[in-house]
Design a protein that fits this description.
Elements: H1 5-31, E1 37-42, E2 49-57, E3 62-75, H2 78-81, E4 92-104, E5 111-120, E6 124-133, H3 139-155, H4 160-170, E7 172-173, E8 178-179, E9 183-190, H5 194-219, H6 226-245, H7 248-255, H8 260-263
Helix pairs in contact: 1-5, 3-5
Length: about 270
């Protein structure tokens, strides 16, 4: 069944808004008392859209968590068009998506990142993924994390091994010769069968909520030391390096006239380098 592009845009935009509200609700329930602060932003040309950013800091669970949703349009800069599928001719685009980065207070709980997006140029496609960056190895947690991601891929008849490998390759720091974390799944340029891909994107979003809640439930009462916190701060340095040097979302946002504060919300609140 062929779906009009206008309807595709409306459906995905509404879904990302709903998911943003659900994530904020579930994370506030984990915090029991601390609320997100909302900020609305628009591009310089109001007609090109904008977004909403929800930020929660200094919580019992979350040191800092940002939940960003945006729907924007416009024209890519000429030198950036060749890097985006279908943008070579006139550079026009429309994009809607949600991005979440959770940096935890407890060093024993991994930082977790999630995003999904729908982009329209002369082509249209979905992309996104989930990955985790622990400071300390936890074999049981790692198995749980990868199993839940594998299960949603199998449920949606997606190639888990392909997405896992893409994630491992993507979240890698070549200048350090090391991975950023333990990986997860990563997918992009999913162009075939819009209905199937949209269902998968929805399941990825809902799984992110379930996965985060389960990891927090298992670890929220685990004791940690000052030395553990120091190790976490150094690990966060790797997170910063990746996001500023390599992250596609950061580059896309900056090259599409996005809000700088929202784009850089993924950075941790405190960090150290040796």
């Amino acid at each position: 069944m062929k779906i009009n592009i206008k309807i595709k845009k409306e459906i995905t935009d509404n879904w990302f808004s709903f998911l943003q509200s659900q994530i904020c609700k579930e994370f506030e329930n984990l915090e029991k008392g601390i609320k997100f602060k909302k900020r609305v932003w628009n591009k310089q040309k109001i007609s090109e859209g904008g977004g909403t950013s929800f930020l929660l800091t200094k919580g019992k669970i979350f040191d800092k968590v940002g939940v960003n949703k945006s729907t924007v349009s416009g024209k890519f800069k000429k030198d950036f068009r060749a890097k985006i599928l279908g943008a070579n001719n006139d550079g026009k685009y429309w994009a809607s998506g949600i991005s979440v980065v959770a940096h935890m207070k407890n060093p024993k709980i991994p930082a977790i990142h999630f995003n999904t997006r729908f982009i329209v140029t002369s082509k249209d496609w979905f992309g996104g993924g989930i990955d985790a960056t622990p400071t300390f190895d936890d074999i049981k947690e790692k198995k749980l994390f990868h199993k839940m991601l594998k299960d949603i891929c199998i449920k949606n008849k997606k190639n888990y091994q392909k997405y896992k490998k893409l994630c491992d390759n993507y979240f890698y720091l070549p200048h350090r010769n090391e991975p950023r974390g333990i990986g997860g799944i990563f997918f992009d340029y999913e162009t075939n069968n819009w209905i199937k891909n949209f269902k998968f994107v929805r399941d990825v979003g809902l799984t992110f909520i379930d996965l985060t809640k389960e990891i927090v439930r298992r670890k929220k009462n685990v004791k940690w030391s000052k030395n553990d916190k120091e190790k976490q701060l150094f690990k966060r340095g790797r997170y910063v390096e990746f996001n500023l040097l390599y992250d596609r979302g950061t580059k896309f946002g900056l090259n599409s006239g996005g809000n700088v504060e929202s784009i850089l919300m993924s950075l941790p609140p405190s960090v150290k380098w040796k």
